[in-house]
Amino acid sequence: MSFLVTPEKLQKQREQQRRAQERAAAKQKAKLACPEYRIKQLEKQRERQERQRAKASEKARMRPPVAKPLVAKKPLRSKGMAGKSRNKTEMSLHDRMAALGGICCINKGLIEPHTGSPVSIHHIHGRTSPEAHLYVLPLCQWHHDTPMGLDNQLNDKYQFVFPLHAKGADGGKVRWEEVNGSQISLLIEVHKLINATPKEIPSELQNLTTG
């Protein structure tokens, strides 16, 4: 017994496939148009890259050391913090971020924007990654790397203020982002508050900030 596919049935199957493909394409397009979805995808990509770098570093660490010929050591020169120097665009960006004030303090209503409160320029992906000096946030010392301390009279009132860079049991990235939002979303917010120019925005975030 043979089953013959008629032209009408074949056409119907093709039409069903076409509609399914159109629905899938529309769903994907809607996702890509959502800033929150794109931010999450960028963060996932960064996490994958960090895991790959960590894996490569671990492999390199496990390799047996290779004997190198002895050479005369040159005197070391202090270069300050690791990473390349900032260019004029990056220095201008950091100055304007500093004039804006700490973004977390602004969002919590602790200060008004552009009040010039003291800030640290926090590097989101470190100082040696591509466009490192563009991936930065203006943070007050308590949102950045300094715990208020148990003896601080403001500690009980501002329990939601703690450092991104953990100091012992105080702070840490996971809890910090739960309270303040992801660092990338905060950076996009800062770009809008200071009217950042395209040169001041990392290439991955161009469409998210200007779109």
UniProtKB/TrEMBL annotation:
<feature type="compositionally biased region" description="Basic and acidic residues">
    <location>
        <begin position="9"/>
        <end position="25"/>
    </location>
</feature>
<dbReference type="InterPro" id="IPR031875">
    <property type="entry name" value="RecA_dep_nuc"/>
</dbReference>
<feature type="compositionally biased region" description="Basic and acidic residues">
    <location>
        <begin position="37"/>
        <end position="61"/>
    </location>
</feature>
<dbReference type="Pfam" id="PF16786">
    <property type="entry name" value="RecA_dep_nuc"/>
</dbReference>
<feature type="region of interest" description="Disordered">
    <location>
        <begin position="1"/>
        <end position="63"/>
    </location>
</feature>
<protein>
    <submittedName>
        <fullName>Recombination enhancement function protein</fullName>
    </submittedName>
</protein>
